[in-house]
Amino acid sequence: MSEAEQANSPKPPPYLEVLCKSSxxxxxxxxxxxxxxAVSLINRKLGIxxxxxxxxxxxxxxxxxxxxxxxxxxxNYGNGWNLQTVNEMDFPGIxxxxxxxxxxxxxxxxxxxxxxxxxxxxxxxxxxxLYIAKVLLAFVLMFMLAGVFMLALDNLPKLILLFNSSM
Length: 167
Description:
Elements: H1 3-8, E1 15-19, E2 26-30, H2 35-45, E3 53-59, E4 66-68, E5 82-87, E6 105-106, E7 112-113, H3 118-123, H4 129-166
Parallel strand pairs: 1-5
Antiparallel strand pairs: 1-2, 3-4, 3-5, 6-7
Transmembrane segments: 129-153
Keywords: Membrane, Transmembrane, Transmembrane helix
């Protein structure tokens, strides 16, 4: 290439844009960002009840998508290739009952944060009907056991007299 062609060729931006399918928002990341960190950051920005991102892929119409693992560095493959998240809704076999591991990430303040349980906190309610039924059953069994002990203690003097008279 000549110097004139190099001056006219568009330079790639110093950042990458990842489209979040759950929220529809684009998030910009610096070149060299790891996919695991990008996924965890995107998931933290999601609202409650929104499907979480599982991984990031680069896609282009008519092509097989390129999937980034948690330790892969995000890369823009050029014209027509776009980065987007893949969420729970894209995989109907992975439901709320199955756990999809998140990615532990290094936050800039130096603390290591593990976001693998963030999905569990969002998707499961704290108190369910089954939980309340189990608590009530435990109380009923405790009162029945207390009644049996009280009945035994009330009849203990009669039992002692019966043993003493038979000896």
